[in-house]
Design goal:
Blueprint lengths: L7 E13 L2 E7 L13 E6 L5 E5 L10 E6 L7 H8 L5 E5 L2 E2 L9 E7 L3 H11 L6 E8 L8 H7 L4 E5 L11 H4 L6 E6 L1 H10 L8 E5 L13 E5 L4 E5 L5 H7 L17 E6 L2 E2 L13 E3 L4 E2 L3 E4 L2
Parallel strand pairs: 8-9, 8-11, 9-10, 11-12, 13-19
Antiparallel strand pairs: 1-2, 1-6, 2-5, 3-4, 3-6, 3-7, 13-14, 15-17, 15-19, 16-18
């Protein structure tokens, strides 16, 4: 089933602030100062940059505050260009096209205890959740926050001041052998609902350790693969077999964006390689798979056009 395109409207950047190494906070308001649409903790916006690139960013602001939304963008030097366009070119006073908030990471409203596990920029939806829950006097929650170092830790001072005794911050220095061992948290199932957001390695680790927990007790939202380890993007072509059209994909575009620009819409949702909505049949060429969905035996005949690229000069798609 196709995912409907979200309605977009203009929001104005009222504040832009560097809050950690390569992390920029944007405050977005209605251009006429009106209240913004309500949202629930864990929601995200789809934004469209001036170059036409669409990206999803979690809201990190308190759902009770509707005069402004807050999002935090990690600038990925080797990413697909959307975060660079946001961090480098979008200034205070600029207008940004954004969808209404949508939520694929809802809090369990019945739960009274939560464990949040965040890695890097994965703190953003979890911060919104914590801001929401601190008004609920009968709910207990705590946070384990894993980052490279203090300089890379977004919202560190705010978390320490606003949630004393509820946070544990671990810095691994970028070394796998210094990663936090979470087994003590998951060895014995607890009454907590677990919400985890961050890079693939963290998500996989938590999923492996919590397999014996009750179904529905552990929730995940991913920001996709770690772009810092990817090779630089290069240009290539896609050949659409059904329409007979050859489309150039620049180094700054995803296949999905190039298709969209030439009037070939493909159903999409996450645009970060995590949901599988944009799966497209691959008929020829060698793909550079960068998604978190396809199994190894599917990669010869399918591609996620929102994030994956080409190793060959051209890909042939069943479009």
């Amino acid at each position: 089933m196709s995912t409907p395109e979200p309605p977009f409207s203009n929001l104005q950047v009222s504040r832009k602030l560097s809050i950690a190494k390569d992390v920029v906070l944007f405050e977005l308001r209605h251009p006429q100062g009106l209240l913004l649409p309500a949202f629930t903790a864990g929601s995200h916006l789809t934004v469209e940059t001036q170059a036409g690139m669409r990206r999803n960013y979690s809201l990190c602001s308190d759902p009770a505050e509707l005069l402004a939304y807050q999002i935090a963008v990690k600038r990925e030097a080797n990413g697909r260009g959307g975060s660079r366009a946001m961090a480098d070119a979008l200034g205070e006073g600029s207008l940004l096209k954004a969808s209404q908030p949508r939520n694929n990471f809802e809090l369990d409203r019945r739960a009274k205890q939560f464990l949040f596990i965040a890695g890097g920029i994965g703190i953003t939806p979890i911060l919104s959740m914590m801001r929401h829950l601190r008004r609920q006097r009968d709910v207990k929650f705590r946070l384990i926050y894993c980052t490279r170092d203090a300089q890379c830790t977004a919202f560190l001072a705010e978390l320490q001041s606003d949630f004393p005794g509820q946070i544990q911050v671990h810095h691994d220095g970028g070394h796998i052998d210094q990663a936090l061992d979470l087994w003590s948290e998951f060895e014995t199932p607890k009454q907590e609902q677990v919400y985890c957001c961050g890079p693939k390695g963290l998500m996989d680790s938590v999923a492996d350790m919590s397999g014996h927990w009750p179904s529905g007790a552990v929730h995940f939202e991913s920001f996709g693969i770690d772009a810092s380890h990817l090779p630089p993007n290069t240009a290539f072509n896609v050949w659409l077999q059904k329409s007979g059209q050859r489309i150039a994909v620049s180094a700054e575009q995803s296949i999905l964006e190039a298709l969209r620009a030439y009037g070939h819409p493909v159903a999409s949702s996450c645009e970060s390689g995590t949901c599988g909505t944009c799966r497209t049949s691959l008929l020829g060429g060698e793909a550079d798979h960068r998604d978190m969905v396809l199994m190894d035996d599917e990669k010869a005949r399918s591609i996620m056009v929102c994030v994956s690229r080409a190793k060959s000069a051209e890909l042939v798609l069943d479009l």
